[in-house]
Specification:
It holds the Pfam family TPR_8. Belongs to the Tom70 family. One of its GO terms (cellular component) is mitochondrial outer membrane. The protein is mainly alpha-helical. The chain has 25 helices and no strands.
Amino acid sequence: MAASKPVEPQSGSGLPRWQLALLVGTPIVLGVGAVYLWNRSRGKEKQGKKNGERKTPEGSASPVQGQHGATNPELENMSPLDRAQSAKNKGNKYFKAGKYDQAIQCYTDAISLCPKEQKGDLSTFYQNRAAAYEQQLKWTEVIQDCSQAVELNPCYIKALFRRAKALEKLGNKKECLEDVTAVCILEVFQNQQSMLLADKVLKQLGKEKAKEKYKNREPLMPSPQFIKSYFSSFTDDIISQPLQKGEKKDEDKDKEGYLKAKQYMEEENYDKIISECTKEIESGGRYTAEALLLRATFYLLIGNSTAAQPDLDRVINMDDASVKLRANALIKRGSMYMQQQQPQLSTQDFNMAAEIDPRNADVYHHRGQLKILLDQVEEAVGDFDECIKLRPDSALAQAQKCFALYRQAYTGNNPSQVQKAMDGFEDVIRRFPKCAEGYALYAQALTDQQQFGNADEMYDKCIELEPDNATTYVHKGGNLDKAIDMFNKAINLAKSEMEMAHLYSLCDAAYAQTEVAKKYGLKPPTL
């Protein structure tokens, strides 16, 4: 996983930004419908996006043929269903005229007249009356009538969506999410209006849950595997390197402070590192700058950016600190700013790092990730090239460069360049078989090309290398329960309240889909 964690950029063409961010290990602001696991186009043609409002009732606004101006004797000769339809059509005329009380009375008459076995018609009458109640902002009545309509016709999209909107108005977000999730699945994720509501509710739920949990949580050290993965995204990080010969003097082995913290690093005894760094800093020892950076790094790892920033600021402004230390501090502060949704400050820090340490491969790697997410693909490729030139063995930069080139070719509809990028992925996974991100990025490209069998093989490889990575299960699909379990674990390790909110949103979306599947028997195209 890369250390740089930018947020979602502004809109642009190309692959969904939420997928890009997940693939580079980035907690982001979720985009429309981003968190749904079933939105993959296996074997189906995409329909045009629908943006139509669902405000009007169903059925003609004029009476059915032969009934215009019907007299009471004529009505008496009609079947009960025809009389119900006549009342509904009259209600539709009132509805379009804005006379909602009269429309409600007509729909009520239609419900009373309709034979109970005519479930389809009866569900329409309830849904129409709910539409009139909606215009009067009578949300409880809307929910009651939509529930009647759904009971009669469980996959009634209009009633489900209208009930979802009413539930949201009353603050019933969980029930709203289930309804709008069903709508999104039934519409094959093609209606922007329902996708926007789903996205809105998921964000609200995520923020509410994260706010409560984050303020009460105890700082939690990530797993050794996560910490190693984090440091592996740096190649010029002095503080993550093993103790040098000159630092391993026998007389120093029992000393407290930075050298002791480095010893704990080697032993993977991470919980003691912050306290040892603090001893070095408070004593004004010779490794104060290193101790500040190491402490800041572990503050970031446990999600305490408030404590990390002053330490990073001090290192960056220390004239006697080495260039490598200052550049590394700038990269980490830039990543922190992106978590805080301050991309301009992040860009400034990455650029400053490049100015003071132009031979530092880490600068170009992390700035390249940022450029991808900001839709500056050509600049991203340039940064990855510079990183690879300085560090030819940088597997992450090689994989992400391939993805940048693939995305550029894919969005530019250039088949020959797409194939060239796909060949590049094959070369990356052959040369770097232990790079999980190489498999994940290649799998996304294969999915875009509808090579689903090959994509699943790549996702399986990624899971084998990083079994604790919840987002891999999102892309692979088909295992909602596993994804939910992994998201719940990831929530406890979130490094910021914003990241925790995103994870809650992902988890809630997955859970809503399992509930919808049970309730309505819906099967997603991907399963």
